[in-house]
Structures are given as structure tokens and as C-alpha cells.
Amino acid sequence: MQNEFTGPRGPKPRSIFRLSNLIVYGTILLLAIYYLAPLYVMLVTSMKSMAEVRLSNVFALPIKVTFDPWFKAWSSACTGLKCEGLMGGFLNSLFITVPSVIVSIAVASVNGYALANWPYRGANIFFTILIFGAFVPYQLMLYPIVIILRELGVFGDLAGLVIVHSIFGMPILTLIFRNYFSSLPAELFKAARIDGAGFWGIFFKVMIPMSSPILVVAIILQVTGIWNDFLFGIVYTRPEAYPMTVQLNNIVNSTYGEKEYNVNMAATIITGLVPLTIYFISGKLFVRGIAAGAVKG
Q: Which residue in 51, 106, 191, 283 has the fewest CB atoms around it within 10 Å?
């Protein structure tokens, strides 16, 4: 006897308009609005003239869009005695960030690789001391570092700030690389040893090619931390070597002349463009790197 068709089997598809979904997505939407509202206000204010800023609501779109505040923030806003905008600070931040990121990641990756795959006597003690240093408040070491940089002859120069950022970035990056390399299959390391590869051969031919996710994590952490730093920049450099964040503070907190809120907003957005761009470009790799071993013990 032929069975009659009884229709599709299985559980009934759930509606996307369930109460739980509405609560979850509603909460996400409210949080997104809450965090994006300041960015929206900054953006629309930066494209208004000062006359419009005084008369209009902060949430109102600009009646006449102008990019003059952006040009002034970049090239002619006063950051102290000089009115050269953020351009000089951008170059200083670039000269500080690039070598600091390269040096700290290069040293930390080798440290993490050695601790994970080439353990030696006292390695755990060394690692404990290194990690302990990552949790010492920076403010406690400001003056000792001033003395060290002065004795090295680099206090007030960009080179001194590169040294400081490179050293302070190594502990947490070493932890990240150690955990990541420990999560890789040990068979790869053993096979490379059997094939005759040594310390550097395994590092460059096996470990580094497999480390793109964790390298992105390290780059994002370092670029964000160094680019957004204010404390070290104002303590260890002279006015002509100030990074972008210090010059932004000088623009926003200037007590002379008219308070140009449109220029201040434009300067703030320009300062934050570099880390924001890196996040948008490499966000997926950042999540992959975190999941692949950055938080594993």
C-alpha cells in the first residue's frame, strides 16, 4: 500500500519575531546607537561652519557642508606657539609607531617561540618576572625611565619614545605569542627537528607562516596602544617631537582665541583614523587570532 504524502516533517520553523530575538536585537541596536551617537555628533559638527554650530542643534545635519575645519585642523590649527596643525604630529606619531611595532613584535615573537618550544632552565621564572612587569603601573616608572633615557642621551627625542614603547609592549606580546605557539600541533615542530631544521629555521619556515592571525592581533594591540598614547608622549618628548595625541590636546584645550568646536571635532576624528582603519581592515583576522590562542593558557 502506497503511503500518502503527509507534508514536510520536522520541527516547525521558528519566527524571527520571537520575543527573545526582539530583546536581543533591540538591545544590540540601543547599544549601537549609544556608542555611535558621539561619533555622529563629531562628524556632523566637523562639517559645519562656526556660525551654524552656534545656531543649530548638535544632532542636526549641516545645512551647508564645509571641509574647511578639516583643512585647518590638519595644516593651520594652533598647537601651542606654532600654528601648523596636526600634520607634524602625524609624522611624529608615524615615526614612533612603525619602528616600535616592528621591534616589539619581532622580539616578543622570538621570546614566545623560545618559551613555548625551546624551554630552558629558569624559563618559567623569567616568564613570570616578564609578565609581572606588564602589570606594574606605568606611573611608578616615569621618573626612573626619565633618568635612563637621559643617561642614554635620547631623552626628548623620538628614539627615546620608540625605546619606551618597544619595551613596554614586550611582556603582553610575549604572553600572546607563547600561548599561540603552544597551541600549534607539536608534531610540526618535531617533524622540522627531524628534518634538521634549527632554532631559526623552524621559526621562519614553520612558525611565522602559520602566525598571520596572531601577528594581526599583535599589530592591532600595539598600533592602538602606541598611537593613542598621551602620557609617554608628553613626558618623554619635546614640543617639536610631540605625537599626534599631545598636539590634539593642545588644540582642544587652547585658552586663546575663539573656541572652534568644528575644528576640534575634525582634529579628533583625524587623530583616530589610523587605528580605526586598521580595525576595519583586519577585524576578522583579529577575532581569529584571539580565538586561535591569544587567550589560551
A: 51
